[in-house]
Amino acid sequence: MSLEKLPEKLVLIGAGYIGMEFASLYAAFGSKVLDYGVFRIL
């Protein structure tokens, strides 16, 4: 994956741990992250 510039805003749809890892990386570099996750309780 290659980006020329970081996104200003990022929406995370889902609740997977890999998505959360990417979201935390983007947030650390200054992107505003909105987590719209759907959690299922087993």
Automatic annotation (TrEMBL):
Residue intervals of the FAD/NAD(P)-binding domain: 2-33
Gene3D superfamilies the UniProt entry points to: FAD/NAD(P)-binding domain
Transmembrane segments annotated in the record for this chain: 12-29
Alphabetized UniProt keyword annotations: Membrane, Transmembrane, Transmembrane helix
GO molecular function, one term: oxidoreductase activity
Annotated signal sequence range: none
Record has Transmembrane helix as a keyword: yes
Highest taxon listed in the record's lineage: Bacteria
Protein's name in the database: FAD-dependent oxidoreductase
Organism in which the protein naturally occurs: Treponema peruense
